[in-house]
Design brief:
Elements: H1 20-27, H2 30-41, H3 49-71, H4 76-102, H5 109-122, H6 128-140, H7 160-164, H8 168-174, H9 177-184, H10 188-202, H11 208-229, H12 231-252, H13 254-257, H14 270-277, E1 280-282, H15 285-290, H16 297-302, H17 315-324, E2 331-333, H18 334-361
Parallel strand pairs: 1-2
Helix pairs in contact: 3-4, 4-5, 4-12, 5-11, 6-10, 11-12
């Protein structure tokens, strides 16, 4: 996939001439133009630079104060509480970088790069360019079994194709994923860091800044912090911070798409694919804040460049749009969403288990392999409205 030019990515650094037919088809979609007009009149696309600047300053300040409190060698319980706060805060920072990558905070490439590197690579320990490439593929190939990175794993299965092609240890894990996965949620942040580091090392010429800041992140959290509070406290604080981040991710990410329809080679229109693959969560204003606005996943996938904190206010418009065109707008409670997620994971585990005996008597198929491609550093951020 390193050289893959998607025919569907319509915005961002990986938008190429290969996507021109998809762009023209979307521009010709009178339904989508009507939706954009309605959302524009509702103020969804108004500049939000100041709002993001305030949020970014607040996140950075809370993160820095939490780190400083741990470094001050205060009481053990206070250090661990600070690590919990930092864990939640740095995920909020990651999603600030997420919005920047979509062009929601700013369209200026230098500012997008700065926000992404600070909040993803430095504060989170992830490589921003890895996230950006994988997330662009996810958005424009949402729930496609061969091209959406979020559906491709050698260990776990979120669709029948993945469940039926597992081999070895991946087959064993996939068959038990409904109880193994919850135990691994605290490790999710580490899994992201490992994947991002592998990507950055493969593409080191284009990811120098990512690599440097990831190293700085780990130096600050381990040797530097250990020089003040000792290795046990420093390591424990980092594990707590990362574990909280992983649990936070697990609480808000799977409910967005797991258990929704998946596709193979079908070339679905943009609007139909984004709506059908996404699930909204019925939440309060506080719940939406905790969800970082991604409880409005349908709206986010239809207009990814819109500020996340405004999406809740336009749900009524999008819901009516979907009703007018007979599109399957999915909105359920958080509890029901998680129930649907684990029912689906259990069903996919059953697919793996049912095929295990067959696999023992026949040649095992090759599993799908996925590698994200190199980053054209400095590419301009574009939207397609």
């Amino acid at each position: 996939m390193d050289e893959y030019e998607s025919p569907k990515i319509l915005a961002g650094p990986w938008s190429t001439a290969a996507a021109r037919p998809a762009m023209e088809a979307l521009r010709a979609d009178v339904r989508y133009r009507r939706l954009l007009d309605d959302l524009g009149r509702a103020g969804l696309f108004a500049p939000a630079g100041l709002a993001y600047a305030i949020r970014g300053a607040a996140i950075f300040t809370v993160y820095a104060c939490g780190y400083a409190l741990i470094a001050a060698d205060v009481a053990w319980w206070l250090s661990m509480l600070a690590a919990v706060v930092v864990g939640m805060t740095h995920i909020r920072g990651n999603f600030l970088a997420h919005d920047a990558a979509h062009g929601a905070a700013t369209k200026r490439p230098v500012l997008v790069e700065c926000m992404g590197q600070v909040f993803d690579s430095l504060l989170g320990g992830y490589a921003f360019h890895c996230f950006r490439r994988a997330h662009d593929l996810h958005h424009y190939h949402c729930n496609e079994i061969h091209f959406d990175p979020d559906t491709i794993s050698p260990w776990f299965s979120v669709n029948a194709h993945s469940a039926s092609t597992k081999v070895g240890f991946g087959q064993w894990l996939s068959a038990r994923q409904f109880w193994v996965l919850p135990m691994l949620f605290p490790l999710w942040a580490f899994a992201f860091r490992i994947d991002a580091l592998a990507y950055a090392m493969r593409n080191w010429r284009n990811c120098t800044t990512d690599l440097v800041l990831v190293v700085v992140h780990h130096v600050l959290w381990l040797p530097v912090l250990a020089s003040s509070v000792g290795w046990i406290t420093a390591l424990t604080a980092y594990l707590v911070m990362s574990g909280v981040a992983g649990i936070y991710l697990a609480a808000i990410i799977p409910v967005n798409h797991v258990g929704m329809p998946h596709w193979g080679a079908e070339d679905l229109p943009f609007v139909e694919q984004q709506v059908a693959a996404s699930r909204n969560i019925a939440t309060s204003a506080l719940g939406s804040w905790l969800f970082l606005g991604l409880d409005s996943q349908v709206e986010h996938h239809l207009v990814p460049w819109a500020p996340h904190f405004r999406l809740r206010s336009v749900r009524t418009i999008v819901k009516q749009f979907c009703a007018d065109y007979d599109l399957p707008y999915e909105e359920v409670s958080y509890v029901l969403a998680f129930k649907q997620v684990f029912q689906h994971l259990t069903a996919m585990a059953s697919v793996t288990r049912d095929l295990t005996q067959v696999d023992e008597r026949t040649a095992k198929p090759e599993r799908t392999r996925f590698r994200v491609s190199r980053v054209p550093v400095g590419s301009r951020v574009r939207t397609f409205h």
